[in-house]
């Protein structure tokens, strides 16, 4: 037994739009474009996990492929894809390959003079670590 994509059902051997869940899918796309977060869209549409909603938002089947009728307008689908990408960039979640990520590693440090002594070793260690400063001119770029 195979399953069909959420928002569709099989009737008389054909895939058709499920009247209830099809509306939910359309509502998910509409909600996301109205600047709601994935979490908000998830809660408003009765899902437990935002990952399920994200999979709906990126599923090209809703454009009418592989024998499925079109459920989402291509223009709306592309707007959602653009918005997903923009929000991912804003949140720093771009999943770039590691060879495109630059790391700046400090290679030179200086230790400022200590003026206090604490009785508790943990407090003294915390204070001593605060005295360590990096020298700005010593940045070393590492590309992966």
Automatic annotation (TrEMBL):
Concerning InterPro entries, the annotation shows: DNA_bind_recomb_sf (IPR038109), DNA_bind_recombinase_dom (IPR011109)
Q: Which GO terms describe its molecular function?
A: DNA binding; DNA strand exchange activity
The Recombinase domain, residue ranges: 5-90
Know the name of this protein? Recombinase domain-containing protein
Originating species? Limosilactobacillus fermentum
